[in-house]
Amino acid sequence: MSLFEKNKVRVRFAPSPTGSMHLGSLYIAMYNYLFAKHHMGDFLLRIEDTDQARFVPGSIQNIINTLKWAGFDYDEGPILNGDVVSDKGAHGPYLQSRRLDIYKKYADELVAKGHAYPCFCTAERLEKMRNEQTLRKEAPRYDGFCRRLTAAQIAEQRAAGAKEVIRLKMPQEGTAKFTDLIRGEIEFENKLIDDQVLIKSDGFPTYHLAVVVDDHLMEITHVIRGEEWISSTPKHLALYSFFGWKPTQYAHMPLILKAGGGKLSKRDLAASAMEYIDQGYTKEALLNFIALMGWHPAGDKEKVGMDEVIAEFDIDRVNKAGATYNPEKLDWLNGMYIRAMSPEEFARAARPFLMKAGLIDASFPDFKLVKYTALEQLRVKKFTELAPAIEFMFKAPSPEKNTLCWKKQEPANAAAALDGVLATLADIKENEFVAEKIESDIKTMIAKNSAPVGETLWPMRVGLSGREASPGPFDIAAALGKNESLSRIQNAINILRS
Fold first, then answer.
1. Which of 123, 183, 234, 285 would suit a FRET pair with 306, their CA atoms being 20 to 30 Å apart?
2. CA separation for the pair 72, 286 (Å, rounded)
3. What does the pLDDT read at residue 6?
4. Which CATH architecture does the domain made up of 99-253 adopt?
């Protein structure tokens, strides 16, 4: 029997609503979702909004909508009814700001049992304390001053109206040990762990109290979070012990690093996960990319869909070292997904980007769009590259005379070559105006005239596209259609003879 068959797996994604959901948050959400679904368990969403100073309006809606877009359907959590946030599930409320009475109850319990204490230290005293510790080259931590206050001293402070917080009374002896599902055995000396604030002076809990209380009450079995929380785990384990609760199992995900090493900054990422879609990436490629940042499937597969990832997901294969953010790999993966689309799917996905670029409107015919976009489907890596690549299809070019000439070709010779192209294209029937027929007839004409291939195909391609680098002339002509192709070739001839 596996580790996860005895009890149903329950995990949670618990972001703070401090802005748009970014790639790092989606990375943590994904691994929680994958773990839950692989073990046929529950995936919960909880909003940790107790830091009211950092709350950004609209963030909760952004989190919910981003998870919905990604397909990470949660079994319990906050849901939107218009702008109103309500709850789905039996363990709510799922916004921590609505659970303040719960946290107060458990904080009072800790104080009553002697596992926590009121602290009246002012901000000035704490700053002075930290500065002195820094000068002594000590790690800044609370010195336990209020831990030693008598009941009379506490009453005196309260009578004077002093602001107070509630601090955790960490054990000062022994060690805190736990088995991380990714990193193995981890151990801390208790005497080095700070007496963490549990309830702030405004009555709101800190992360440390709220997360333990909520994970217990919501029956969370596994906590999958970023490695920056490893050092906080001893405090959480102490709380579980003081309450007499069975702790969750922990798995700390590696930080996201640059491809060449080094910590990733916010400037290296898009402002939000959804912004990647605006940048021209497909949802499938982005999710595939995130899945492979910190985990790998069996074998050397790179292109894997979410159903396949869920089936194969094993937390034992999550990297202990940093996850790698490699934008070149994202581009490469996105190109693979683009090339796997049918021409119709590609054109449909490309339409919003071409509309945003001002090349088309909503009435532009689908059949024509399929022809135009297919010219670059095998080349572009993201949709934002498409508009500049095929802009010439929507706007007839006026190339320079010298650009129309192949190498040292004279304008008169280039014009004569295009005369032959014009006549050949004019002879092709409308219903036969396809790339294969155009190529066959043009090459037959070139051979008949014993002309250098470059001296015909170069001016033909530049005449059709206005560019020195573009798709092949036969594909362009077929996509443009007979009338537009003839018009552009005639225009090129006029330029060469002007």
1. 183
2. 14
3. 55
4. 3-Layer(aba) Sandwich (3.40)
Residues assigned a catalytic role: 266
CA 42 to chain centre: 22
**pLDDT exceeds 60 at position 2:** no
Euclidean distance between CA atoms 118 and 164, whole angstroms:
6
Q: How far is CA 217 from CA 22, 320, 451, in A?
A: 28, 30, 83
> 389-412 burial, b if ≥16 CB within 10 A, otherwise e?
bbbbbeeebebeeebbbbeebebe
Classify 411-496 by CATH class. Answer: mainly alpha
CATH 3.40.50.620 fits 10-96+256-325, yes or no: yes
Beta carbons of 225 and 28 less than 8 angstroms apart: yes
Average pLDDT of the residues in 5-18? 87
Rounded distance between C-alpha atoms, residue 134 and residue 132, angstroms: 5
Task: Tell me the whole-structure pTM to 2 decimals.
Answer: 0.89
Tell me, what amino acid is at 161? G
Confidence of residue 296 (pLDDT cuts 50, 70, 90): confident
